[in-house]
Structure formats: structure tokens, C-alpha cells
Design brief:
245 residues; Arc Repressor Mutant, subunit A; 2 domains; 3-stranded mixed β-sheet; 43% helix; elongated
Length: 245
């Protein structure tokens, strides 16, 4: 046990690896290239460091197309880092995305909702206990709550999965379930879509109706625009099956 603890402490204690871990403390996934910049090392050196962190179960990785996204392995790792931060007396830096605000707020990702709105919906489903986090199947509570929603289950596509959002670096809802939500949101004029882009705009009717259907939390509905990252911070799910952005 002492050897295992010493091994983990050594993995955290190396300065470049520590910078990587503290960068991931905001619960957002990042590529090896991004973490190399944060750690101030070359991409090849970053790869070695990330392999060490993965071997010690401090980070996990999700493959998304040609990219590999790294995040903290769980809440226990974040808790240890936070406590070390307290001992060190240093504040945590906030994630600062550079995506244009209108695109970051709400947009389509193929046939489902992405951006801050998509992440908020995903988080709401988990908060309400509508999705089983290990399989992303609807729970009995989810089946009852979403009885009003027509979902196409005739195709061979997955019913639902966590899709990594490239602007929020958190998860939004993909699959047949995500497609059904977007289809209904457009049909009922909960959102409108720009003709020449992927941008979605949440309407006043949408804000009210999505709250009535428990798709958005009250805190999200009270805002004049799509919630900002500081108002809603969904956590990365534990499911191992993810898709492209």
C-alpha cells in the first residue's frame, strides 16, 4: 500500500504532469497536444507523461476520430488535487473557451443539440435519473418522463450516447434520443436554426416548454440567454462509450 501511494504521489509530483492534471481539474477533456502546451513540453514528451498518468489511473482517454481526449479519471482524483491546492495555497484557473459565443451557446452536431444548451440537457437527464450512466438506456423514471417524446428506434443506430462537445469540452446527448429531442425542439419552435449555419437559438416558448418538460433546470430558464458555463457545469459521465464531436 505504501509503495502504491508513493508511486501515485510521484506521478502527480512531476511538474509537467502536475500542470496537466491541474489543467484537467475543471472537468473538461483536452487533447495531448493541448496538454503538451500547458505542461510546456514537446508532444512526444507529453505522450510519455500521459501514459504514466493513465497507468496510475489518474486520467482516462476517449478516442474521438483522429483525436484522443484526456480527462481526470474520477472525482477521487479531483478531490486529491483540490486538497493539494489548499495546501499549496493556489487558486484554480477557469477554462476560457475561444469559440464565438453564438456558436458556443447552441448549435447542431449532426442531428442533435450541441453547445451549452446541449450540455445542459445532457446534465439534466443525469440529474433527474432518466439515463443509466453505464449504458445510457432510459431508466423507468426516464421512460415515464419522456413518454411524450417520439423516438425512432427502427434503425440500427445507438439509442443514446455521450458525445464530447468541442466548445464546452463536456458531454452532450447523441444517438436516437438526441435526434428526437432536436426534431421536437424544431417542430415545436423551442429552437430556431439559422439558414446558413449550425447555430440554434432558444426561443422564449422553448425556454418555458423545455422547463415544463423538465429538459432544462430552473436556473437555466431564469437567464435571458443560453446559460453560461459558470451557471451550468455538467460533469463528465463514467460511461466508456463516446462518439465524435
Amino acid at each position: 500500500m505504501d509503495d502504491a501511494a508513493a508511486r501515485i504521489a510521484a506521478a502527480i509530483g512531476e511538474p509537467a504532469r502536475a500542470r496537466m492534471l491541474y489543467c484537467l481539474l475543471d472537468n473538461r477533456a483536452r487533447t495531448g497536444t493541448e496538454l503538451a502546451v500547458v505542461a510546456e513540453v514537446s508532444p512526444s514528451t507529453a505522450s510519455v507523461h500521459l501514459s504514466r498518468l493513465k497507468a496510475e489511473h489518474l486520467v482516462r482517454v476517449a478516442a474521438q476520430g483522429k483525436h484522443r481526449y484526456y480527462s481526470l479519471a474520477g472525482a477521487e482524483v479531483a478531490d486529491v488535487l483540490e486538497k493539494l491546492n489548499v495546501l499549496a495555497g493556489r487558486p484554480r484557473r477557469q477554462f476560457e473557451p475561444n469559440t464565438p459565443e453564438h456558436l458556443r451557446a447552441a448549435r447542431t452536431c449532426y442531428d442533435h443539440i450541441a453547445g451549452t444548451l446541449g450540455v445542459a440537457i445532457h446534465d439534466r437527464f443525469l440529474e433527474q435519473g432518466w439515463l443509466a450512466t453505464n449504458s445510457y438506456h432510459l431508466t423507468p423514471a426516464g421512460l415515464q418522463a419522456l413518454a411524450w417524446l417520439p423516438i425512432d428506434t427502427s434503425s440500427r443506430r445507438r439509442f443514446a450516447y455521450a458525445c464530447l462537445d468541442w466548445s464546452e469540452r463536456r458531454w452532450h446527448l447523441g444517438g436516437a434520443l438526441g435526434a428526437a429531442i432536436l426534431a421536437q425542439a424544431l417542430r415545436r419552435r423551442w429552437v430556431t436554426q439559422d439558414l446558413d449555419s449550425r447555430v440554434l437559438r432558444l426561443t422564449s416558448v422553448g425556454r418555458r416548454e423545455m422547463a415544463a418538460h423538465q429538459l432544462l433546470a430552473p436556473a437555466a430558464v431564469s437567464l435571458h440567454s443560453i446559460p453560461t458555463p459558470l451557471s451550468l457545469r455538467p460533469s463528465i459521465p463514467s460511461t466508456a462509450r463516446h462518439r465524435s464531436l
